[in-house]
Amino acid sequence: MGSNFIEQLAGKSSAAEYILENPPMKQVVNEHNQVVWQQVPNNDRSVQTLFGHISRVRNNLFHGAKFNGTWYDPDRSRELMKHALIVLMHFKDKVE
Hints:
This protein is mainly alpha-helical. The chain contains four helices and two strands. Strands 1-2 form a two-stranded antiparallel ribbon.
């Protein structure tokens, strides 16, 4: 894919831009030994970071403690999943 991955997405580049601008949160253990959600920086705009974020979207969907009272935003989750699928579907036939 390389550094021009945004251009390769053509009309679907807004999906990658959304994920890079609004990366999925990650779970961490805080100083009180509680699992909490933490913001992820959005300053790295590489293809590796994009697919790392997409991987986290998937992991949060299947493994994240979404209902523990610390964070749950179904609209944000839906948007992240939608945009991740757009990127994945675009590139699925371009890798071997």
